[in-house]
């Protein structure tokens, strides 16, 4: 190689910013390679980072920490709305499954590492990699900041964990001789506690409400349902203020299917009338940005009296629900509004409708949330005989779960679009993997040559034992359905590739719902359990 070319190449390799993006580019290219529809995805960065590190390259200091905080915070924002809702309905069930999966993985890792004399840092990395948990890797690195073996162990065990889960979700249905094409009726509702939103045309036959204004019928709102239209001359027309109910009137009622049945029974019976559904000019989705609307309840806004429109449903943090009179409207809520075109336009102007608001990231909201997460991570938690911190992984994750659930921080309301959240999450992940991998790459060959096949054997057992044990527990104790089990195990193993394999073979949303139910539990448990694994192994070694 000519001296000039060699000199230029060395200059590039000495440039830490160039190395960072070279690691990312080659890692993502490696992750895009598919073998039997299985790929490493963004985790390919860890392998190229180890390779660059083995050649003595380095990346800017602190880039891994910044990436870690962004990654776990965005994960928490995405999981927040589902996390607390699931815990309110079936939290104990999925918490038990997550606890069994992670507990068995931890016990296997500790037992194997103790018997095979594997160093604590390597064992912690293998445990995190076999469970495909990047937050666990982050927590272990915080607990052992100078131990390169954590990242090396993770890099060796991660592909084993990915392949094991993907194979499991494809083989298990065949072993159980069950189809995954469709979910049992009502399964999604059992997990989320929320029936799907439906609508029904109802004929009023109850004499007790005949002659009363619709606004005085409180039972409909108590059941979280709303009347959006009335049938007139074969057409469904928007409800007007002061509508008085009379026997024989036909109303279109919207609500969750289980609560809708109660309202139908209360009003009268399902209608057999034929009707023409509304035109697009009679309904619109309006994004709220006006301060005159934000923070106020529907009762305070009096939209039906003032604007002659009905708010049929609200979309907030990707979740649809039927509003009640006491429902507070939040910034960037998307309202489905029913009414005449001119009335909808008037309300739209009042609400400050601006579609672009859904694509804008409120940077103050983001920065304050992350700052509070860092503070929470550094704050010492003291228990009898134990003192610890949540660290840069657990602190931002905990705060993000709360912020994701409530959608605000005190009086600070904000919005982070899904696309922006996903972008920051992916950037954070690859920055973290690049920083961790390059730092550990220098000792990779020495560790592998010293421990060899024992590391691979530990990785295989650490992911196989919890999956088998979790399957038996979910089937015999929790009595879950096949799709619930598959999604739940993928969630407990934090395996997105495994979930992708399931969703490519079934139209049911059940695996995704059960995955989302277990996944946040696994994220939090792994960040805590990996520290317990390190502590136990240190005591055994001492």
Structural features, described:
The chain is an alpha+beta fold. The protein has a domain at 3-186 and 373-541: Na+/H+ antiporter like fold (Up-down Bundle). Helix content is 59%, strand content 11%. The chain contains 21 helices and 13 strands. It has helices at 3-14, 16-31, 44-54, 63-116, 120-130, 134-143, 149-176, 187-192, 218-222, 257-267, 298-301, 303-307, 341-351, 363-378, 391-406, 418-440, 444-451, 453-476, 482-492, 496-503, 510-541; strands at 197-204, 226-232, 235-238, 250-256, 268-270, 283-287, 310-316, 319-321, 334-338, 381-383, 386-388, 408-409, 412-413. The strands form four sheets. The chain has a five-stranded antiparallel β-sheet. Strands 6-9-7-8 form a four-stranded antiparallel β-sheet, covered by helices on one side. A two-stranded antiparallel ribbon has the order 10-11. A hairpin with a 2-residue loop joins strand 7 and strand 8 (319-321). Helix 5 runs antiparallel to helix 6 (134-143) and helix 5 packs across helix 18 (453-476). The two termini are 52 Å apart.
Largest sheet: 5 strands, antiparallel
Regions with little confidence, pLDDT below 50 for 5+ residues: none
Overall pLDDT level: 79
Shape: elongated
CATH architecture of the domain at 3-186 and 373-541: Up-down Bundle
Counted by DSSP, the helix tally is: 21
For the biggest β-sheet, the strand order reads 3-2-4-1-5
Total number of beta strands: 13
What is the radius of gyration computed over CA atoms, rounded to a whole number of angstroms?
27 Å
Oligomer: single chain
> What's the level 1 CATH class of the domain at 3-186 and 373-541?
Mainly Alpha
Q: Which topology of the domain at 3-186 and 373-541 does CATH recognise?
A: Na+/H+ antiporter like fold
* Residue share in helix: 55-70%
Strand content: 5-15%
